[in-house]
Amino acid sequence: MCRIASIFLLQRPKGSMPSEARDFNMETRAVIKFIIIFFLQGKAPKEIHAILTKTLREHAPSYATVKN
Fold first, then answer.
1. Is the terminal CB of the chain with fewer CB neighbours within 10 Å at N or C?
2. Where are the domains of the chain?
3. Which helix (H) or strand (E) holds 4?
4. In this structure, are residues 27 and 9 in contact, taking their beta carbons and an 8 Å threshold?
5. DSSP per residue over 9-30, as a string?
């Protein structure tokens, strides 16, 4: 699932580049969706944070964000 998450989150739409604000919102929504998916799979917040940190490195949300 980590590979799928990284491909989805790091993929950019083809064509003209959207504005930075729109791009940020799309990425934020994608991360939230993955947090929800992992939660529904029964993963603990520590596991979810570890997966996102491994995938997104310095762009991952903090543990507190994932926990809340």
1. C
2. 42-68
3. helix 2-10
4. yes
5. HHPPPSSSPPPHHHHHHHHHHH
- Tallying the residues shown for the chain, one arrives at 68
47 and 38 Cβ atoms separated by less than 8 Å? yes
Give me the residue label for tokens 């520590």: 46
Segment 32-53, tens digit of pLDDT: 999 999 999 999 999 999 999 9
Single-letter amino acid code for the residue at 51: I
Integer Cα distance of 11 and 60 in angstroms? 16
Residue 26 CA, distance from chain mean position: 10
Provide the token pair at 63.
């543990």
Q: How far is CA 43 from the centre of its chain?
A: 15
